[in-house]
Fold each of these.
Amino acid sequence: MTETEIACQLYICVNQSSNSVDKRRFMIAMPRIVAALAQDIYAEHYQPQRMTAFAVQDPKLREIFAPNFRDRLAQHWLISLINPSIARSWIDDCYSNRVGKGTHSAIERLQHFMRKPHNRYYCQMDIRSFFTSIDRQILLKLWHAQWVKLDYSAQTLRQINAVAVKIILQNPIDPKPLLSGDLALLRQIPPHKSLFHSPAGIGLPIGSLSSQFFSNLYLNPLDQFIKHQLKINAYLRYVDDFMILGDQPQILLGQMRQIDQFLAEHLTLQLHPNKTVLQRVNQGANFLGYIVYPHHCYIRQRTLRTLRKRIYFFNGLLDPVHYPCHTMPVNGSWAKWLSLHQLHPPLNVNPVLLKRMLGTINSYYGQLIHANSYQLRRKIYHEMLGPIKRYFLPSNANYTQLHIKAIWLRSPP
């Protein structure tokens, strides 16, 4: 692949990426960034730069290592070239970070399995500290087994491999990452969940597009083992959360022990001892943000609590006296937006602010419409929104989403 061809593909990746704050910030310098990156990839000299580390609490406390814009662009380029071919060899019931799949497809598939008369029980498993336990040398071997199968010229294969190997073997804490956000929160991360405490050569960063792809590549041997050696048809996985279903609990327990042994022997992983659940299908399964039953599902209370916090925060932006925001977000899209525009409560109501609020609220409505939640959706609008209710209306009688009242979209005189 020529340097010009690489640059053209990088520009395609720029156009396909989300309209992030970093993207807008680097837009003027984009030609220089793309030209320099294309030259490095072409010459097989690509080297990832230091990351930014911070902690998030939504939905739970996690450590995030975010690559800079240049490295995110390189990852987009890499995944766009390798994912279509390599992902074809993965099982259909791997649902994480795959085009045309996702959480709702996984839940529908689980319900399909639950409705089978011979699937009276399920065994749900979770891998302990998955991302911080990945052995990068094992991942490298799995990558090399797939890389040679790609249908590209020898030169392009070398360029792809050079970028992939650098990303796989990158030590997220060397050079020392830039620390961001609430450092006290970052220090609360348990050592077994932090890359700062991982042994040499162990762990992939959460927060990278490449990590999403390579996590599926790393667990593909597990998927193949369960499907083709254990011969379990009723199996599905989303990242490191997976399920098997069957008619006899003792058989499921035996299969769970075989899975745990395979993980230890082949992938240096282990099941989380406190997150294995074996129970009847008709009792429901706590899976991917929903309580799932064979014919219906409900939203988790944790998701609803998070929505309540968001609504309180929005009211606090407009009326900090009656809605004091003791915990302003220190990272994430809202924190970046407030910081970029140097905004501090109380804020004046304007279409830009309302559209951002609406986007967040409707993202929750987007989750709710996949559950049995009509009464809850109605209650959110009529009882939970508080003062900001005056700016929004339901878009239809089913309360599937909200929209901004037309009067608040008018330009000020």
Amino acid sequence: MDASGRKRNLGEVYIPIPAIIRKNFPDFFPHRDKIFNLHVPSNEILSSRICQDKNKAIMTYPNKALSDWLLRKVLKLNEGELLTYNKLKILGIDSVRITKIDKTNYKIDFSRIGSFNEFIEFCN
């Protein structure tokens, strides 16, 4: 797969930011390409930034840091193994929740099944 004209590494992942969140909370995240700290439940801090057109995603530096934490350490997936919604249902989660601590620090955690839909209803 291609990533801006270069070969994509299997460990490159991002967290999509739904349009409704970008619309309703436009100043929640720093501006695109501004580095911020993403605190994960394992007490690690991942250097992160908003990326893609229309600020649609969160990625980490190095890019593989997110997949190492989320896919390998937490979800225990093998390199190249696909994460499916069925696997998330087995774990009882359907999304991540990001909490703003201050202008440069954010906390990420998992949300139980149904919480994303509840949040979307709240936004509407």
Amino acid sequence: MSEPRLAVAFGASFLGFPTHLGFLRGLLAGGWRPHAVAGSSAGALLAGLYAAGVKLDAVEAAFTRADFKDHFRERSFPWRALGTFLGRRGMPAVLLGHKFERLLGDLVGAMRIEDCPAARLHLAVTNLRTHAVELRDRGPLVETILASCALPGFLAPRRMGGELLWDGGLGSVVPVEQWIDDREITHIATHSLLHDEMLQARARPERLNFPGAIFAGHQLAADEMLRWKLELARRAGKIIVPTETITARPRLGWPITAPARQPWPELARALIACGERSAEMAVVRLGRGGTA
């Protein structure tokens, strides 16, 4: 029997990267070291830092900084917010992401995806010109992470190689398709995030407003697509362990989100703990032999 080799896909979720960090930490504590990782949006952030070899303690320190919110404060925010909400052309998001880019640069420097030492890496981005999802395994790491996080309305798209790239979660919320026929991969674990508000909406769909209904529709399509991709992987002989973590919706506070219920460092650590608990269940389902 061949040595088990695990691939882990981290799903898109607004500010969900601390929960993904906890999940990865739990997998490692359970003896499973990913041979390959992939991610969309918030998942791309965690996957990229891990593949680059950044120690998880350093990732946690970056994610739980007391001034973390300041990386989403930009002088141009009021004008970009006005232009975004008025539908001004060429202004699809309220943030440019320059401060967050510097934070990531401090962690990984000018590393490229293909040079990541800790794991093979794919990052999902959406190319709206070609109407295609691209799973990038080459190119500048920080730029590609930011492209995968470029949620319309929130973070401006990134121009790379003459193309304008948007949030990977628009087309592939949990990117696993690259491993279906990969003979090196024996196990695939996915980590999806669901907020308690989503569960409430499912229980009382008649109370949805228009934006909520649009989001619920996108989530339904994403869940159905993931189900089919995992079924294809099963048919290809992979051992599949999908995991979903339910948390309260993360909030940083004004001007990025509604007022936070608790200081960000405390909330981020609570989200990390949620991910660790989910990983404990995933490790049980993966079984023994996770030294890949």
